[in-house]
């Protein structure tokens, strides 16, 4: 999976003018919106183009400069929102935050302008999509929501695991037994010396892979002990 | 799964979602899904100086994987139910 904003070029565009989709991996076109300007970070808006939303990516192609465009995977979109306040931006728009690659390439030498621009692209963390018809904003927002939900984190994310607020929690490698045997005398909310359960809950990390299987618990509301 | 059920109970309450990029957004929890994607309404950014662009945003969708913490209203925590649920999760998980 590729983080951040990508450049689309002529070879990413079909003869029909639509962007090439990765059909083999199940990518489908969900929505096309004409007359949309794009604003990358603090740059000036780019001339109207067409927005393509697929089941995996958001793509924008310029109507004027054929072969010019951008794409960002839903994996990389941290947040999206409808922005209507003219003080923040003059035109109502869809606002996106993009999770970019770590800025580790600061020192790299990019003599080629194209490469330098691509390097800049990978640092774009904010993007606005400005449809000429602002009545479409809510529809677009809903489509973004639906497509984001089609793209959960891939399996194998190694950030799983419980996290309590107190880093002094002993890691004895035998936590199941610990939880069961200590349970009555030492309820889990108090187990690490933190006497405020609400506070403990605040500190729990919620991106745990184990929380992704919605069906399992519903099928077995009463778990048998293992 | 426990947290999906848990957060569903908080719909309609005010929460503060802190993202891994340090942006913290306060708002009314509109909905949550099984991936802990979160929709907020009536949002406001906690540190407005740092993220002026977010000022205009009144509702937003936050990808579950970028959430670091969710701060809950104190009265939104039913400690007895949560105790029970976490014990069951610990046994069955």
TrEMBL record, chain A:
**Which Gene Ontology terms describe the biological processes this protein takes part in?**
cell volume homeostasis; chloride transport; mRNA cis splicing, via spliceosome; spliceosomal snRNP assembly
InterPro entries from the entry?
Answer: ICln (IPR003521), ICln/Lot5/Saf5 (IPR039924), PH-like_dom_sf (IPR011993)
Gene3D superfamilies recorded for this chain? Pleckstrin-homology domain (PH domain)/Phosphotyrosine-binding domain (PTB) (2.30.29.30)
Renumbered to this chain, region (Disordered) spans 153-176, 206-226
- UniProt main location, coarse: cytoplasm
Question: Which keywords has UniProt assigned to this entry?
Answer: Cytoplasm, Nucleus
Where does the UniProt annotation place the signal sequence?
none
Give an example GO cellular component term for this record. spliceosomal complex
What is the name listed in the Swiss-Prot or TrEMBL entry for this protein? Chloride conductance regulatory protein ICln
Where does the protein end up?
Cytoplasm; Nucleus
Q: Name one Pfam family in it.
A: Voldacs
Sequence similarity: Belongs to the pICln (TC 1.A.47) family.
Automatic annotation (TrEMBL), chain B:
Which residues are in the Sm domain? 2-76
Q: Where in the cell is it found?
A: Nucleus
- Principal subcellular localisation of the protein: nucleus
Q: Which domain of life is it from?
A: Eukaryota
Described by its record, this protein's role is as follows: Component of LSM protein complexes, which are involved in RNA processing.
Q: Which GO terms describe its biological process?
A: mRNA splicing, via spliceosome
Q: What species was this sequence derived from?
A: Vanilla planifolia
* PROSITE patterns noted in UniProt: SM
Q: What is this protein called?
A: Sm-like protein LSM2
UniProt record similarity statement: Belongs to the snRNP Sm proteins family.
């Amino acid at each position: 999976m590729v983080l951040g904003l990508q450049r689309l070029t002529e070879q990413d565009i079909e003869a029909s003018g639509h962007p090439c989709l990765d059909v083999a991996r199940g990518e489908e076109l969900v929505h096309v919106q004409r007359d949309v300007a794009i604003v990358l970070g603090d740059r000036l808006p780019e001339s109207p183009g067409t927005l393509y939303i697929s089941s995996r990516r958001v793509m924008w192609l310029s109507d004027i400069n054929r072969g010019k465009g951008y794409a960002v995977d839903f994996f990389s979109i941290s947040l999206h929102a409808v922005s209507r306040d003219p003080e923040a931006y003059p035109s109502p728009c869809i606002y996106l935050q993009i999770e970019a690659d770590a800025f580790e390439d600061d020192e790299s030498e990019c003599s080629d302008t194209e490469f330098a621009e691509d390097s800049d692209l990978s640092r774009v963390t904010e993007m606005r999509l400005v449809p000429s018809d602002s009545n479409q904003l809510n529809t677009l927002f809903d489509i973004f929501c639906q497509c984001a939900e089609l793209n959960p984190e891939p399996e194998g994310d190694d950030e799983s695991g419980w996290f309590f607020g107190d880093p002094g929690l002993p890691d004895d490698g035998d936590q199941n037994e610990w939880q069961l045997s200590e349970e009555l005398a030492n309820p889990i909310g108090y187990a690490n010396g933190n006497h405020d359960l609400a506070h403990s809950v605040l500190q729990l990390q919620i991106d745990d892979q184990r929380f992704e299987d919605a069906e399992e618990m519903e099928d077995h509301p009463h778990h048998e002990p293992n | 799964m426990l947290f999906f059920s848990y957060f569903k109970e908080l719909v309609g309450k005010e929460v503060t979602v802190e993202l891994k990029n340090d942006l913290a957004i306060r708002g009314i929890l509109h909905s949550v899904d099984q991936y802990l994607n979160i929709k907020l309404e009536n949002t406001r950014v906690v540190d407005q100086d740092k993220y002026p662009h977010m000022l205009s945003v009144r509702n937003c969708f936050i990808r579950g994987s970028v959430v670091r913490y969710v701060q809950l209203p104190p009265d939104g925590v039913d400690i007895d139910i949560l105790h029970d649920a976490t014990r069951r999760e610990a046994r069955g998980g």
